[in-house]
Structures are given as structure tokens and as C-alpha cells.
């Protein structure tokens, strides 16, 4: 049964949102809706126009037999600035400061709306780059990694600080925590990453960057390549073990037991939208 | 500027997908598109028709000044059966069996497509129930909890086996692991759950159910109420500490070192679609 344009647009929007960064052939839609490819092209032009106006994504159409449509989720500058501003305000709250200058962020990193927006924002930087997997360290990085992987439509893998019976053979590396100079260990299941994989590293919080550096080593141990490193928040640190990263927030707390907290933009907005 | 129906349908579909189980007033859409509410109602009828045909969700419209539209993600029986069958086949693989009869599932639980579908499937059972939060135990339950919370549009909270410096004050409980009869401890940040919260417990794998029982105790310690318990897979167990749960898969492996594995449907499909 031929399906009307209005119905096609609803279904197509839904379908593309669930299949980001994946080439969908026009034939697939033509068969799904029993409709000529020329009509499908017109439909896609409408979807593209709406996404462009809202700044929420880009739709590219590739002609030819092997062609199709490719949807890339994006966040426009205005929405990005507003989102980061909102997060800054939510974090600038003295009741979040814990003994030792740690900051409570688990509520934000457990909110689907925050995670969805963060995922779309962090993938904007990698709109034109091929990524095969997202890597993070257990426990608090997981929700972010999943949110980013969801927009990239690639798997995410979880690095752990111990070997677990449910992970099978693991490859482990030692790394130096940047702040306290302790030697720690992290491990990843051997079967979770293939050789040659292009990996995006994601984490919730970075101080000196020891954990991130450990993950970079681990990617290389697997014969993979680090495409980039994105963290939700960076803290104050005297040493910085890695140079090439982006952060949404910069959080500054004191170690002297006071609950003062200063939150400002990280380097993400500057790096992505203003270059 | 007035916006055309075709464009409205694309944007509205996108908007509703990002705001499930939330009452959106018709005025909101009327203002967003500078369009009469009567046209918005016609748009929504189209969206409802498509979702109903595909079995991917339900759209309810409530009339009146305080009314609006409410989108509930669902998975129809046919899609659910096909999905569970696919997962069963993927898990029925002797190379997944690890020493001790454990089963490697981390690849599936790191795939956005599997997680999205699992989230939509598991929330179908709770289409008409109020849920305030999803709870899971670190580490492997987190991706599932996030996927379910995303469809329910509520926060998820992570129970841990130790107190972390980034979680602030925590409430802990002791619990008995069902299989080995050891006493373990689990803890949740005090600020992560409000009193009276209606909580859905989600986990990746359940044997005797000790962890789930511990989480039930924890919910009660917070003055909350357990709405239900949903696990991805249940394993064979001589004891079963909890009765009321649903599982997508039943996985049977042997403890004698052989790598045989038997995977069948859990009780979910039977409970939800065939009663």
C-alpha cells in the first residue's frame, strides 16, 4: 500500500533518528513506502530543511546505485551555548562540593535530557570523522560514553580497574595517576576492540589526565588509534598529562575544606564554534 | 513565520521522540509553529496513525486548557518477538561461555541499537504506570538502566559496592548473595533518590537474585517503592530469592567447564503480550 507523504515524513524522521551516521539507500525507503525514489528525494529535502533550520543535524544525499542518505546529528552554536550555560549554572552550587574538593555530578549524569544533549553536542566535533568505538572508564564515564556512542551509532567499551569473571581474557596496562603519582592498573576485555579501531575517549571528569592517558595507552595496546578525547568537566590541576582534549566545563574548587565553587566554560565551545 | 505541515511533522516527530512520557501542551506547538491549534491536532493525528501502524508508540491527546499530547514509546508483539529471537541467536554462541559458566554479554550491552530496542521493549510493560527513577547496580547494569530511563524520560541512579568520594553521603545496606551466601554491601548516594520515589529496578543478569533483593531493600531504606524488576537475562539457579521480575532471556550454562550454552526466551514476552 502506497503511503502518504505526511505519514512518510513522520516515519522517515523516526527512522533516521534511530540510524544516525549510517548510509540508508533510497531504495530502502522506496520499498518501505512503495513510493517512487523521486518522491523519497523530495521527502528528504523537507527533512533536511527542518534539521538545517533547527541546527539539529545534517542530511546528505549521495546519488547513484550505491548512494543513499546519511544523517549526522549536530548541535548549532546557539543551542550549544545555551546548553553549556545551563549546565554551568546547575553545577555552580556550593552544596555540590564534597570533602577533598570533589564535586557531585551524578544527578546530571543520570538525566536522560542532559545526556542526550551532551551526546549530540560532543559528536558535533566529529561530524566528518570516522569513529569505530567510544571508550570510557568505569563507573561514572559510562553514561556519557553511551550517550555519545548513541549519536555516533557505534559501540562503546568500558575499561575497568580489575579483571572481572564476566569479561573473559583482558589486556591490562599500568598507568600513573597524575595528581597522586600512584601506579594503577586498568583492563579491557580482549574481545571488545578490534585491531585498527578508531577510538574516541570520553570521560566525566579530568584533573591531571592520568586515566585518559592510561586509556590512550590501552587503545595503542589493542592496535587502535585515538581519534580524540572529550570530557564533561575538567578540574584544576598543576600538571596536565595530555594536551589534546575538549571539555564542556571547567570546575574549580578548593582543597582547604571550603565549599566555594567556580564553574566556567571549558574549551569546547571556543574550539568547535569559533575557530 | 508560519511553518508548513510537512515541516511541522518532521519537527514534531523529532520533538516527541526526545520528550517521551511528558505532557506537551498544544499551545507549545501552536506557538512553536505559529499555527492554529486545530492544525496541530490534525498533525498529531497523523503522527499517532504512523506510530500505531508501526507499533512503535502511542500518542494520547488530552483536551482542555491543561491538556496536551502525551507520547508513550512501545514495542509491538511482532517486533518484540523478532528482537528477542535475534538476541537469543546472538547469545547462543559457545565462544561466549567463560570459566565458571559466566557468559560474555558486554558487546551486546555496548551496542546502541540493542540498547535502544531493549529500552523501548522493557518500558512497554510500564506504559500505564508512573515511574520516578530507574535503579541499577554498577557496572554492567548501567547501560540498560540508561536505555530504559531514556524511554521513560526519568533519571537513573547507580548503586555501588563501595562509598566513593564523588558521591557524598551514602546510605548502605548489607545483602546476601543468593548463590554463594556471602554478605555483601551496596550503597547509594543520599541525594540521588527522594523519599516516596517509585523505582524500577533494572539489571543485566540475575541468578539467585541477591543483588536485586539488595536493591529492593535499598529502595525501601530511601522510603521509596519498587514498581518492578526487569533483567536482560536470567541464569539457572537452585534458589530464587525474588518472585516478581521479568527477563528477556534465559541462559543456561554448565559449571563443569564445558562450553555448552542453551538460550531461550525469558518470561517477558509471555507475561507482556500473551496474557
TrEMBL record, chains A, B:
CDD domains for the chain = PRTases_typeI (cd06223)
What region holds the Phosphoribosyltransferase domain? 123-244
Q: Which Gene3D superfamilies match?
A: 3.40.50.2020, Winged helix-like DNA-binding domain superfamily/Winged helix DNA-binding domain
**Residue ranges of the Bacterial purine repressor N-terminal domain?**
4-73
Q: Which UniProt keywords apply?
A: DNA-binding, Transcription, Transcription regulation
- Quaternary arrangement and interactors, per the entry? Homodimer.
Could you say which protein family the record assigns here? Answer: Belongs to the purine/pyrimidine phosphoribosyltransferase family. PurR subfamily.
Name of this chain's protein = Pur operon repressor
Amino acid at each position: 500500500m502506497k503511503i502518504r507523504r505526511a505519514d512518510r515524513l513522520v516515519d522517515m524522521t523516526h527512522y533516521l533518528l534511530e540510524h544516525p551516521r549510517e548510509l540508508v539507500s533510497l531504495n530502502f525507503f522506496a520499498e518501505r513506502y512503495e513510493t517512487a525514489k523521486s518522491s523519497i528525494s523530495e521527502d528528504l529535502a523537507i527533512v533536511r530543511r527542518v534539521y538545517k533550520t533547527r541546527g539539529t543535524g545534517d542530511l546528505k544525499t549521495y546519488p547513484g546505485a550505491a548512494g543513499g542518505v546519511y544523517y549526522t546529528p549536530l548541535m548549532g552554536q546557539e543551542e550549544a551555548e545555551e546548553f553549556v550555560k545551563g549546565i554551568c549554572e546547575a553545577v555552580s552550587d556550593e552544596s555540590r562540593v564534597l570533602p577533598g574538593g570533589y564535586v557531585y555530578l551524578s544527578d546530571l549524569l543520570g538525566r536522560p535530557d542532559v545526556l542526550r544533549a551532551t551526546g549530540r553536542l560532543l559528536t558535533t566535533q566529529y561530524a566528518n570523522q570516522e569513529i569505530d568505538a567510544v571508550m570510557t572508564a568505569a563507573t561514572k564515564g559510562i553514561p556519557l560514553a553511551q550517550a555519545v556512542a548513541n549519536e555516533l551509532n557505534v559501540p562503546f567499551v568500558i575499561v575497568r580497574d580489575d579483571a572481572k569473571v564476566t569479561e573473559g581474557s583482558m589486556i591490562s596496562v599500568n598507568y600513573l595517576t597524575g595528581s597522586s603519582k600512584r601506579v594503577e592498573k586498568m583492563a579491557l576485555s580482549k574481545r571488545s576492540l578490534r585491531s585498527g579501531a578508531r577510538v574516541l575517549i570520553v570521560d566525566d571528569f579530568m584533573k591531571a589526565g592520568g586515566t585518559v592517558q592510561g586509556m590512550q595507552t590501552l587503545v595503542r595496546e589493542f592496535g587502535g588509534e585515538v581519534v580524540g578525547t572529550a570530557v564533561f568537566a575538567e578540574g584544576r590541576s598543576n600538571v596536565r598529562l595530555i594536551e589534546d582534549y575538549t571539555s564542556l566545563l571547567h570546575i574549580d574548587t578548593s582543597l582547604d575544606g571550603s565549599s566555594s565553587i567556580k564553574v566556567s566554560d571549558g574549551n569546547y565551545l571556543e574550539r568547535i564554534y569559533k575557530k
